[in-house]
């Protein structure tokens, strides 16, 4: 599927998931790391609404600049018309700081006590006012195409904020920013049919063929992006749409969003 003009370097990937019993077209966006200067990215995000997804899953790290919230909301405005769910990443709380561009190759980034200098409550409020479900350590439910779908999510595991709620459902979708194995285990224990996550940037600095060297967490590199199985659940990890504005380097790993056709 192709989108109209203004897509810049951003890719739309497509995945097919079968055997879940669900019937959904899900647009998965993640790691936007938005800054006011990101005109092409804003255009790409707005054009994604042409896909008319049944559900938007946003796995966090929306913000990449202290002045990003207003232009981010403008860029997401068309997608906020669709049912959606979201969780936070660390960059939804704190503005970016200067880091070594090769940090991604030096193992998981440290959990730091960065100041929470962003107006995160306002961003969450705008998402919620549009009808998106806030899944930060919460559960929720949506009726989509005559299906009742339950959701469970956690606040950012990279900041150790995750606390998986208990929920029993035969139609469960689970959402987290950083796909740490402890979180994936907790979702698999709840028999989630699908798990969505971001955070890895697909490895960000990859070998040819998008082969990741790191995941910035304890997820194996072969699962750094795309679709895989985690125990009995399907796992989709987005390669994301951005990076820290001070390290805007992505090698063999273009920024992307993914449309998943789930049946
Ligand atoms: Fe990120």
UniProtKB/TrEMBL annotation:
Pfam families: Metallophos. GO terms for cellular component: membrane. GO terms for biological process: lipid A biosynthetic process. Residues 24-202 form the Calcineurin-like phosphoesterase domain. One of its GO terms (molecular function) is UDP-2,3-diacylglucosamine hydrolase activity. PANTHER family: CONSERVED PROTEIN, TRANSMEMBRANE PROTEIN WITH METALLOPHOSPHOESTERASE DOMAIN-RELATED. This is Unannotated protein. It comes from freshwater metagenome.
């Amino acid at each position: 599927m192709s989108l109209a003009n203004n897509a810049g370097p951003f890719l739309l990937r497509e995945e097919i998931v079968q055997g879940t019993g669900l019937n959904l077209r899900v647009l998965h966006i993640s790691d936007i790391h938005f800054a006011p200067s990101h005109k092409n990215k804003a255009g790409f995000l707005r054009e994604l609404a042409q896909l008319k997804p049944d559900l938007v899953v946003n796995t966090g790290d929306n913000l990449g600049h202290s002045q990003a919230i207003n232009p981010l909301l403008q860029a997401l405005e068309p997608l906020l018309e669709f049912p959606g769910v979201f969780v936070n990443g660390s960059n939804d709380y704190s503005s970016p700081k200067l880091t070594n561009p090769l940090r991604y190759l030096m193992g998981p980034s440290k959990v730091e006590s960065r100041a929470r200098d962003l107006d995160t409550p306002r961003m969450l409020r705008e998402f919620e006012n549009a009808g998106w479900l806030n899944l930060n350590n919460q559960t929720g439910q949506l009726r989509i195409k005559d299906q009742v779908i339950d959701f469970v999510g956690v606040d950012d595991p990279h900041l150790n904020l995750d606390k998986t709620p208990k929920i029993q459902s035969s139609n469960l979708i689970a959402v987290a920013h950083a796909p740490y194995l402890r979180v994936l285990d907790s979702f698999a224990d709840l028999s989630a049919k699908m798990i969505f996550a971001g955070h890895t940037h697909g490895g960000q600095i990859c070998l040819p063929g998008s082969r990741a060297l790191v995941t910035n967490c304890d997820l194996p590199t072969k699962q750094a992006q795309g679709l895989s199985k985690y125990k009995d659940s399907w796992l989709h990890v987005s390669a994301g749409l951005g990076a820290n504005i001070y390290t805007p380097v992505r090698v063999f790993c273009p920024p992307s969003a993914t449309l998943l056709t789930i049946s």
